[in-house]
Design brief:
The protein has 403 residues and is α+β, with helices and mostly antiparallel strands. Helix 5 packs antiparallel against helix 9, helix 6 packs antiparallel against helix 7 and helix 9 packs antiparallel against helix 10. Strands 3, 4, 5, 6, 7 and 8 form a six-stranded mixed beta sheet that branches. The chain has a two-stranded antiparallel sheet with strand order 1-2. It has eleven helices and ten strands. It has three domains: 84 residues, no CATH class; 247 residues, no CATH class; 55 residues, no CATH class.
């Protein structure tokens, strides 16, 4: 995937955060509102206070604070390098947009029943397994058997959790999104949204408090201080439920919906389904981008191998040519040598010459055969028997007359 550079300009941010809520502005930068607020504080950009936009919507005119002057050493911009998020286009993008937008339509609103009647088969299986299951370290129920929905809540929250999960699974089925339970004990529930498999979980949120040492632990701390060099924490079930999207690294959007001080999880199911659609969209775009990069890499490797093959072919040809030229030159020298030996023999009064113990005539015959054997031009010369008037062999194609 490619990198992209995001520049947060101080003056630009100042105008933007006072023109629209930071929750909306953050989406245009592809970050969370919390992350964008941190960047504003880093650049010393003042942010609207709580209730500001409510007053503006009521027609009140509120003077915003001025942008302070930078101190020596402070930066005008904050630059971030990050992976460029893959995006879909065309009909694929439109399909995901329609699916997400439909969750805002009144007829699509998901209602959680007050009683668990005619429950989804996966919910029925989960209920039986959870009511007879053990508890984890935080008091939350664990299913007795694997292959059940991922629901981790205390007995006090079980009925409510089952009703919410039942309403969610039925709503997903109506939209054509199949669901199944994870095969492993701690596996997430799987939902297939527009062809993409996503994992979801329902858990009871844990409250975190600093651990208060017992008398025994206090005594151990006084004796072995190194054992308590870092604070420890206790986690207790809070009674608040949360739905989470898990297992997809391709998106940076919101993944968790939980009970809040003003709104319960029951009223967030359409938002959760819309988020599933967006995560599925990001996941598909990520998969297609990886596939594109894989094809590019394969093409680069093919070109590299082809270049290496051509280079090796060129090396072998040069090596073969050099060897042929050497053999051709040797064969010519051998024939010249033989010709001079014959000339000396004819001009000599000695009737029988020998090369070692071999008579010259026999040796000359062998030497000529060897010269013909190593001469790379020999086969071509035999295939083209035409000769000039003085008996010289006609030159080869690409050669010169002097050869």
């Amino acid at each position: 995937m490619s990198w992209e550079t995001i520049r947060y300009n101080r003056n630009t941010l100042y105008e933007q955060v006072w023109s629209q809520p930071i929750l909306i502005l953050a989406k245009s930068y592809g970050v969370s509102n919390v992350g964008l607020a941190k960047i504003c504080r880093r650049l010393r950009v003042p942010l609207p206070w709580r209730g500001y936009w409510a007053k503006v919507s009521n027609g009140e005119s509120i003077k915003r604070p001025a942008l302070s002057t930078l101190r020596p050493g402070e930066q005008e911009e904050y630059v971030v390098e990050r992976w460029a998020k893959a995006k879909l286009d065309g009909e694929r993008k439109a399909a995901f947009d329609r699916a997400a937008a439909s969750e805002k339509e009144p007829e699509q609103m998901v209602a959680v029943p007050t009683d668990l009647d005619d429950a989804h088969k996966l919910v029925v299986q989960a209920e039986k397994s959870l009511r007879h299951g053990r508890r984890d370290d935080h008091g939350r129920l664990m299913p007795r058997s694997p292959g059940r929905l991922h629901i981790r809540v205390t007995p006090e929250c079980l009925d409510r959790a089952l009703r919410i999960m039942d309403a969610l699974l039925k709503a997903l089925e109506v939209r054509g999104y199949a669901s199944s339970a994870g095969a492993e004990e701690n596996g997430s529930t799987t939902v297939v949204v527009l062809g993409e498999s996503l994992g979801i979980t329902m858990e009871e949120v844990l409250d975190c408090t600093e651990h208060v040492l017992t008398r025994k632990e206090q005594a151990e701390k006084e004796k072995y201080s190194w054992m308590y060099s870092k604070p420890t924490y206790d986690y207790t079930a809070s009674g608040k439920l949360a739905l989470r999207i898990v297992g997809s690294p391709a998106t940076t959007g919101r993944r968790t919906w939980a009970d809040g001080s003003k709104q319960k999880l029951e009223f967030c199911l359409n938002q959760f389904i819309a988020a599933l659609v967006r995560v599925a969209e990001d996941q598909l775009a990520h998969t297609l981008e990886l596939e594109r990069e894989r094809r590019e890499w394969q093409e680069q490797e093919r070109q590299k191998l082809e270049q290496q093959r051509r280079k090796e072919e060129q090396r072998q040809r040069v090596e073969s040519l050099t060897q042929q030229v050497d053999n051709w030159d040797r064969s010519r020298k051998i024939r010249e040598f033989i010709a001079e030996m014959r000339e000396l023999e004819l001009s000599s009064s000695k009737k029988t010459w020998k090369i070692g113990e071999v008579p010259l005539a026999e040796w000359v015959e062998w030497a000529l055969r060897y010269a013909d054997k190593i001469d790379p031009v020999g086969p071509i010369r035999k295939a083209c028997p035409a000769v000039s008037g003085d008996g010289a062999t006609l030159p080869l194609v690409g050669s010169t007359a002097s050869e």
